[in-house]
Each structure stands twice: as C-alpha cells, then as structure tokens.
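Field log, afternoon session.

UNIT: design team B
ACTIVITY: writing a sequence onto a fixed backbone
BACKBONE:
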C-alpha cells in the first residue's frame, strides 16, 4: 500500500462536516505531497461516537458525483 494516510481523531460525536475536512486534507496531500509512484491518499476518521444513520447519509453524499463534473467547461 504505497500511499499517504491522513488520520483525524475526534473526541466527540461524528459530524458530517468532518468528512469535508478530511477530504480537504486528502486533496492537499495528493496535490502537494504525493509522489508520482504513490497511490492516492487515504483518509481515516476516528470518532468517539456516531449515529449510524448520520454516517450513512454523509458517506453517500461524499461518494456522489461532485457539482464540478456537472458544470460545462468554459467556451474559449
């Protein structure tokens, strides 16, 4: 597994915005730190507690296609 790993430890309950923060870290690692021979970075989020339904909804949204892919490229 030749990849960078970002680990986020939360002492409180899982909140959906935590995924956005981890996603930000992963994007920064992939753009600025990752070497060409390395696999994409991996994020690990550990929380003291969580509501399973909230986690499920947050994960479904995080894996949905982004708005950026729906916006057409500007015409040159």
């Amino acid at each position: 597994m030749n990849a960078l790993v970002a680990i986020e430890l939360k002492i409180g309950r899982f909140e959906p915005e935590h995924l956005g923060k981890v996603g930000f870290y992963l994007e920064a690692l992939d753009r600025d730190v990752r070497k060409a021979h390395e696999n994409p970075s991996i994020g690990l989020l550990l929380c003291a507690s969580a509501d399973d339904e909230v986690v499920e909804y947050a994960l479904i949204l995080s894996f949905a296609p982004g708005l950026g892919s729906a916006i057409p490229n500007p015409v040159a």
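LOG NOTE: The longest strand covers residues 3-13.
NEXT ACTIVITY: expression trials, pending approval
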